Amino acid sequence: MGVQQQFGHSSLFFGIRNLNEDYFTSPVTSLFTNSSCGIFPTLSADYQIANYPVASVGLHYELQFTRWSLQTSVYNGKGYYRFSGKENVFRFCPQSDGILSITSLNYQQHGSNYHVGFALHSGMYMDYEEGTPEKTKKERRKIIWGYAEQRLAPGLHALLQGSFQSGTSRGCKSYASTGLTWQCGKTEGGLFTDYARFSPSYEWASEFTWKIPFSGNGFIQPTLHFIQQAGARYLIGLLRFSYVLPTT
Length: 248
Prior knowledge:
Strand content: over 45%
Oligomer: single chain
Helix content: under 10%
Structural class: mainly beta
């Protein structure tokens, strides 16, 4: 929801945005449902930013060429899901909510995609273990990430991701993952494993997913997650439905 202006190879948008729609939406990465945090946990695990299912007001700029593209955004530092009151998505209050700025440089060629980016966040630390924010200290964090989707053969891609966060002694400090996707006719499968280093713990997570077409433009995607943390293991099943609207 917002206003967009196109000029040449550039576009500028102001309005309500969601981090998931702006970044981390390349073909291979988008297949996986991931584990608890959705996007890189170095970016999403410690703050209530505009990460699904919440959104926030922001300014988003894109510069597009044939192979290269640049994206940069500024969001309210906290995401919301209401349309009225103090928790409405139109709220922009850097003093209390903080602010998030993010930039990504992308390159694609011959079915492969490469991305590198960084983010700066200033705001209150969110204690997710207790479910409440810690109001005592405002922190500034720097997050760097990169990921590559390398085409190995027709219908076969390798995925490699990595991210690091500085300027904090809490939350997710680093993240690394690798994966493989393959396409058999109209079906698509993927295998993915990652490691996230939290303070003072860690998480290993693996995912196996299979995307199956049905009823024309519809898809059903059964997924299995295996998650191992310090002293605990989880096996989680997920079923995702999707539908692609036909274009004319």
